[in-house]
Inverse folding.
């Protein structure tokens, strides 16, 4: 393209004269890349000055009045390209591919329920800090994942290499098998850092075993790292000691057990998450610890705040016998909305919400709960919310990951029947 | 109590040798030495075992502070305690490993982590690695011990329990999920004997390079809103919690609705 700006005085004149029959066509041409059908509102003039057509701004609203929506949300939705544009706007994360990493930072996420927890994401953010510190020597973040998982967004969490040990051997409580796998990773890849979440029965257990096996002294309860040129690995860390009453500052060791919120999770980049495998199969070993499976605990005895699965009742529940029966069959802890408690159907200690208990359940089934803002606040940290309600417009439906519109009593009865039938089949098969 | 002491003395045919590792705790408010909470729960767990001979083991300095803490454990109804003498700043793992391999207990119970010093909770793991014994952490209860195999109940988050079997000898750690310790009684605490044993000293050199300060309050994480327009910023500030992209089933029979919920519960692994 030539640098000289060519002017067409006639077209400019048409563009200024909105009574000219070809006015709209010329405007569209000048607008260039702006889509067909819409009139250009802004274009680059011949002298490099932005020109605006204020008459083309806005759209005719439902009442025949011209509306201007500066956020662009309504107009884009009206033009039918809202979804595409919105996703393009959120997905502008930089793509990063590290082909030949100078070193590896190994992360062993907990993956409770088969997904990365927020603690895991914080840890991956910490790993990225370590890996990306030097532009000349970029490191790669290696995630070592055990067992079956449902996570699809390792790339967004900042994982460059993914090592997945998918074997029934690693299911349940199998610290010895996992430790053997980590020792094999250490032997083959020798990562320069090992990061594990300091979470009970997850990384805290495995990380300490790994440290004892590798004869490295780990830093535990780490919540902050800073660059420090005098330290052997170039970093200094601060961790909690003495049951959380002291802060210990020391040079960063190879194995780090970090607390939640130790770093910001990765948000601006997207990484490769290339699968990686060990060259040799893992040696078989005799497990001295045998997992006999979870023990059925009385769900009513579990505190509401830490229950994993809550069946919650609201004003829409009329068949209370059926509700209690369903909770018993499903093995769910019972919760209730304020209305159900006030009406005397449930005890006060079962109330969920801002005035009751803030729950952290992984699955929350709300039956006949309309979703007052106080109730929604109480279930903020729940992962999956299922709503059963008669009113399709209520707030709980908007929050829910799965909503079923219908009569709660019959749906619960069908669910109970389905679960019982499935258990019967399992018993027959066994 | 006097009868208690007689009972343990007479119980010579005890089959299970249990050693409990105890440490000097620190009261969270006053900072005074006390029996450590998790270790006391470990002693309680050992006392609840059937036909067990319980010995207490501590490695550390012997002074007025540690003596008062050790007497706290003795007051739970044990006649004696072995104190492996180690100076301040020593690495107690070699001395403890030697004491344990000499005593050869079947089951070693320890608290999850100490209330003083580094408090990394690493000691049981190092001992297990050194002795080559299996280790189970976060125990709630010991159900039974038969033919050299212990059946344990491990505490999972959210009030769940898991049953494990482990071959003895083994090391287990307990934390706040185990049953609370009984009160320490004054009489047995006075009467209990503390047997001090000298041991070789290995110094912990790395610890001298650390700087230790009282715990600072951690900065609270701010909610970061990445909005490009005023409208998005307003929405982020005023928004209610919304799942977004939820599936809504309308006009379905109760069976179809129940089927969808059942599928989701199955996927999440909630139903057993």
């Amino acid at each position: 393209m030539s640098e000289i700006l060519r002017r067409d005085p006639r077209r400019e004149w048409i563009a200024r004269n909105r009574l000219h029959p070809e006015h709209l066509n010329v405007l569209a041409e000048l607008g260039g890349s702006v889509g067909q059908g819409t009139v250009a509102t802004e274009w680059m003039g011949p002298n490099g000055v932005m020109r605006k057509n204020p008459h083309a701004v806005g759209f005719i609203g439902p009442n025949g009045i011209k509306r201007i929506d500066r956020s662009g949300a309504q107009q884009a939705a009206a033009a039918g390209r809202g979804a595409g544009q919105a996703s393009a706007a959120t997905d502008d994360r930089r793509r990063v591919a590290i082909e030949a990493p100078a070193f590896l930072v190994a992360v062993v996420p907990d993956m409770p329920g088969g997904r990365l927890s927020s603690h895991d994401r914080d840890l991956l953010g910490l790993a990225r800090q370590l890996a990306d510190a030097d532009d000349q020597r970029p490191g790669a973040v290696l995630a070592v994942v055990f067992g079956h998982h449902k996570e699809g967004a390792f790339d967004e969490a900042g994982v460059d290499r993914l090592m997945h040990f998918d074997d029934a051997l690693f299911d349940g409580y199998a610290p010895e098998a996992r430790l053997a796998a980590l020792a094999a990773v250490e032997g083959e890849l020798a990562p320069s850092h090992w990061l594990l979440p300091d979470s009970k029965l997850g990384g805290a257990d495995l990380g300490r075993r790994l440290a004892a096996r590798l004869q490295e002294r780990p830093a535990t309860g780490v919540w902050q790292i800073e660059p420090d040129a005098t330290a052997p690995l170039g970093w200094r860390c601060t961790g909690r000691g003495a049951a959380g009453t002291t802060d210990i500052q020391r040079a960063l060791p190879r194995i780090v057990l970090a607390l939640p919120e130790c770093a910001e999770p990765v948000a601006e980049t997207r990484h490769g998450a290339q699968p990686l495998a060990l060259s040799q199969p893992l040696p078989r070993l005799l497990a001295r610890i045998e997992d006999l499976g979870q023990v059925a605990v009385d769900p009513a005895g579990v505190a509401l705040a830490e229950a994993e699965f809550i069946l919650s009742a609201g004003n829409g529940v009329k068949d209370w016998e059926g509700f209690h029966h369903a909770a018993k069959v499903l093995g769910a802890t019972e919760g209730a909305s304020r209305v159900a408690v006030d009406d005397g159907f449930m005890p006060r200690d079962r109330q969920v919400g801002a005035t009751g208990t803030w729950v952290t359940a992984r699955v929350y089934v709300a039956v006949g709960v309309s979703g007052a803002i106080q109730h929604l606040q109480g279930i903020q940290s729940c992962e999956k919310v299922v709503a059963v309600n008669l009113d399709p417009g209520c707030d709980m439906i908007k929050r829910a990951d799965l909503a079923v519109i219908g009569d709660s009593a019959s749906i619960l009865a069908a669910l109970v029947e389905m679960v019982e039938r499935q258990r019967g089949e399992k018993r027959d098969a066994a | 109590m006097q009868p208690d002491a007689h009972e343990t003395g007479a119980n010579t045919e005890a089959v299970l040798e249990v050693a409990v590792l105890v440490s000097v705790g620190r009261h969270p408010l006053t900072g005074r030495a006390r029996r450590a909470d998790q270790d006391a729960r470990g002693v309680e767990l050992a006392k609840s075992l059937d036909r067990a001979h319980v010995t207490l083991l501590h490695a550390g300095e012997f002074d007025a502070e540690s003596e008062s803490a050790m007497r706290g454990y003795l007051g739970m109804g044990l006649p004696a305690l072995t104190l492996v003498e180690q100076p301040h700043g020593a690495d107690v793992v070699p001395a403890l490993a030697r004491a344990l391999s000499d005593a050869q207990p079947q089951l070693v119970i320890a608290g999850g982590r100490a209330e003083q010093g580094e408090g990394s909770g690493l000691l049981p793991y190092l001992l297990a690695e050194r002795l080559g014994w299996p280790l189970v952490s976060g125990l709630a209860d010991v159900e039974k011990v038969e033919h050299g195999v212990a059946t344990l109940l491990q505490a999972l988050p959210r009030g769940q329990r898991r049953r494990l079997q482990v071959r003895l000898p083994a090391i287990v750690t307990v934390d706040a999920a185990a049953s609370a310790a009984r009160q320490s009684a004054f009489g047995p605490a006075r009467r209990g004997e503390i047997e001090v044993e000298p041991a070789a000293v290995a110094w912990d050199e790395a610890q001298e390079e650390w700087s230790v300060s009282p715990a600072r309050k951690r900065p609270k994480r701010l909610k970061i809103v990445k909005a490009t327009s005023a409208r998005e910023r307003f929405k982020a500030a005023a928004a209610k919690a919304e799942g977004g992209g939820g599936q809504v089933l309308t006009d379905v029979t109760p069976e179809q609705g129940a089927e969808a919920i059942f599928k989701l519960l199955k996927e999440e692994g909630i139903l057993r």
Observations:
- Chain A has three domains: 9-90, 94-276, 299-429.
- The two ends of chain A are 77 Å apart (CA to CA).
- Chain A touches chain B through 94 residues (CB under 8 Å).
- Residues 33-37, 76-89 of chain A have pLDDT under 50 and may be disordered.
